Amino acid sequence: MGDLEIIGHRGYAARAPENTLVSIDAALGAGAAAVEFDVRVASCGTPVVIHDETLDRTTDGEGPVARQTVEQLRTLDAGAWFDPAFAGERIPTLTETLDHLADKAHHIYLELKGIRDPSDVDGMVDMVRNRGMSDRTTFISIDWSILRRVRAQDAAIRIGFIVVTANLFDAALSLAVADPAAILDLNHEIALDEPSVVQRAKAEGVDVVTWTVNEPDEATRLQQAGITGFTTDHVARLLTWAGQESG
What we know:
The chain is of the alpha/beta class. 34% of the residues lie in helices and 20% in strands. An 8-stranded parallel β-barrel has the order 1-2-4-5-6-7-8-9, surrounded by 6 helices.
């Protein structure tokens, strides 16, 4: 099963505080060739790596991310909530994360969660492009208007339409079919419930990855449906299933 892509979800979310550099390193250290992480924009315009709209769940801060400057965000502890061993881990900026991954991950899935203005997207595309990382980065988002902005800035970089519910599949597929550098990123339950959607996409030449796949039996069913990309919290578990475990 060497053609399968195991993607560390928010780094290695089952073993380290999500969306931190230590979590990303844990995924890569386990043997994942690809990682996914989330990006929001601080009040000062700096893109930072964090999932939630608010700080409360994954830091010792509170309130909206978008109301804090990057200097304020950098004072917060983003590790102790997960385990005291990770106390002192910080919210990384996007530039720090990209530089950290410069010679590491083969593929990066950069999920755009929240922006202040469409011009924020332009800056993030430039950050990737200026580092020569466009060929191994896929911008993904639930907000497809953000992806349109990415495409307006770069005609070739890969984008991925995140599909949360089955009723959105047809619209996402139509958009992906019209864009030769687009993929679909499906909630894995959609593909489990209706495996034929994967073949519909593949018949149109559209690649499909899924999230969040943590159980080998579900991964097997998804592979049988035609899925080759699996975003997972449990990196080692899925790598073992795929026969790609480190060492």
